[in-house]
Design a protein that fits this description.
The chain folds into two domains: 15-155, Rossmann fold (3-Layer(aba) Sandwich); 158-300, LD-carboxypeptidase A C-terminal domain-like (Glucose Oxidase, domain 1, 3-Layer(bba) Sandwich). The chain is 27% helix and 24% strand. It has helices at residues 31-41, 62-74, 90-93, 100-104, 116-124, 142-146, 148-153, 181-187, 210-222, 251-258; strands at 15-19, 44-47, 78-83, 108-111, 129-131, 157-161, 170-180, 199-206, 231-238, 266-268, 281-283, 286-291, 296-300. Strands 6-13-12-7-8-9-10 form a seven-stranded mixed β-sheet. Strands 2-1-3-4-5-11 form a six-stranded mixed β-sheet, with helices on both faces. α9 packs parallel to α10. The protein is globular. The protein starts with 14 loop residues before the first strand and ends with a strand.
Amino acid sequence: MESLIAPPKLKEGDKVAIIALASKLNPDDIQGAISYMQNNWGVEVVVGQSVSASYYGFAGTDEVRARDFQQMLDDTSVKAIFSARGGYGSSRIIDNIDFAVFKQNPKWIIGFSDITAVHSHVQSLGFQSLHAPMPKTFMKDEFSLKTLQPFLFGSGMSYEIQPNELDRNGETEGQLTGGNLCLLAHLIGSVSDISWEGKILFIEDVGEYLYNIDRMMIQLKRAGKLKNLKGLIVGSFTDNKENDEPFGKTAYEIIAEHVSDYSYPVCYGFPSGHDTVNWSMPCGRAAKLEVGITKTILTFQ
């Protein structure tokens, strides 16, 4: 399977933008990221109004966040857009965004968590985007931060991790898609939903009750989203919660149960998601997944 259209490579001197598509933040939380991008990548950083805006839990009203996003999409001098953080709110504004200029002048859109809604929408338009550390989380892990640069500046990347006892071995190739499990389930049936047929799916989540992970996996299965995958990459499932009565399975065991009817390769414990270590994943790019007895390798061209 071929990759979706990749935005142009970044180069030294390019302008990149930071906006807040979802929850509010303290602007001081992204100063380290701004300095890093300026000093290590040699790019110019512009910051949108939403980064310092506040409306209850949101980074400004829907109108403020949508206007910020639209402005940065339409500004052809801006070559990449980072969401400062996730939280909640991207899906509230996505239907109000006009991607006409973006389609003619695509640029990298970077984020994870709630930004999964944006990634799926961008893929529905035929373009790659980057599920990756956001400015608020930039300084958590040095290697995770360094995984951004190969994709943004245009080189290949290969990851290697240790096996997990729940892995299902095998080799496969397909276009990568995925992100936050909650958002992926939320998007089903919307205009931002995409087909996963023949693709390698990756999923992650944070702070969910175990029964709700089960419910979301059932939703994906009943909607036919799991049966025709080429492979599955299970990332971080952190801070899981129990009801008073234990559910009886871990998050990974729940996922393993719901994909047990299928034969494609599955790897568990991939370091992508809501954890200190969060490796960059290019949505819409062709990938090769090798789940072996001694190691798992994920390769992007």
